[in-house]
Design a protein that fits this description.
Layout: E1 8-9, E2 12-13, E3 22-30, E4 35-36, E5 44-49, E6 53-58, E7 68-70, E8 76-79, E9 85-90, E10 95-102
Antiparallel strand pairs: 1-2, 3-10, 4-9, 5-8, 5-10, 6-7, 6-9
Length: about 100
Amino acid sequence: MTTGKISAVCGVPGSAFPAIKPGTTQNVAVGVASAQSAAVGGLVVRVVSTTDCHILFGANPTALATSMFLPAKLPEYFVCAPTDKVAVIQDTAGGNLSITAAI
């Protein structure tokens, strides 16, 4: 019987890896001013940016240069409320932030 549990990844028993069933994806332009997504719509989200940037989650967030740093092209996974939004601001150059909710 298949349980959906993976007991080993890369030979390390009990290890885990970030995996989601992808839902809706939003793209937000990354620029010199904070830009905000729509509600993420999931409890877990995957974010990845084409450029180094700073992000902030919340009901009505405004990202600042002091917000959490997200390096370019490195996906990260976050637990949040489905009603949360993601705000983003560039570090040194513009680009795009992709936000995918897990379903």
